[in-house]
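Fold it.
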Amino acid sequence: MKNRLTKIIKDMLRSVGELFYLWKDTLRYGFKRPYELRSLLAQMEELGVNSLSIVIISCFFVGMVMAVQVAYSEANFAGRVMVGIGVGVAITKEFGPLLTALLAGGRVSAGITSVLGSMTVTEQVDAIRLLGASPAKKLVFPRVFAAVLMFPLLTAVADFMGILGGLVVSLVDIKMGFTTYVSQVERAVSLSDFFGGIMKSVFFAFFASLIGCYYGLKVEGGAEGVGDATTRSVVATSVCVMVVDYFLTKLLVIF
């Protein structure tokens, strides 16, 4: 048991070190000419635009569920009149960026790992190295940079859809007026809350995309190895997002 735990810790530390060097190479080569603008735009569409539907649908219904929970968790009038406050604060501070990271981030990480993993096992990545180019520049940088650009936009959409879901429940179920709900949200949610969630999404995007690239470039064993790496990538991304979310939340509370 002790040897197994030691091996797990060593593997984790080695992975963290390799992730750091991958990011260092990405920064070193990514901003050098020629710029990969076409690849960047393609990845922005793949990682951002194509993740829009899952974010819209999921966050809309999460907002509806939160509104019901706030309204009916207290068997008195107070719960119903605070729906806008509860939904607005929870969505913008936490659930908007977190759900975006878990849903879109899982999709992004899995997609990146499967694509790069297939390129690795078919020796396309080795061919890039033989041509004197850097995989970090050609493959990693466009994906990481595209995710960092698109996740804040997805998070803003998630915030809007979550608050909209709460509004629908307020109008249809709780019979709260539109003006009342909107005024509660405006009064409860500050710009610092909104931009704090946006800042979180930048870190989530960075780790989700970098982890996906890391596992994709380390694939071994053919198609089976690609599937295994994809699973590991999604699990690692989910765990990393939750850990980073805790520390970012503590940091935002302090400052």
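The CA atoms of residues 128 and 135 lie 7 Å apart.
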